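Justification of computing resources. Each target in the renewal requires a structure prediction run like the one illustrated here; the chain below, 92 residues long, is used simply to show the kind of job we budget for.
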Amino acid sequence: MTVDYDPNLGTLHTALCLKDTVISQVLQRFEFYALIASHVALRSAYQMGYFSPEELHLRLPMSLTGVTGSLMTFFVVFYNGNVSAGTTSSMT
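Resulting structure tokens:
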């Protein structure tokens, strides 16, 4: 879907416009709010001292984050390439 861009509206208006974006679709999903709620609950429990990852031996070695970050970047780019290719092919 192509969205018309009006450069006269300004940067702030363009940045805050949610119409025809993935953000409006994400905000309509239950999973988004469930993940936000679980994050807030875990963060609050950690801050108040109810949850301590060290006591449960929950550690993530930094060497693993490089591999997972690289894979995630690859798949996001690959997925975006498929979305772009699908969008342009469906428009013709």
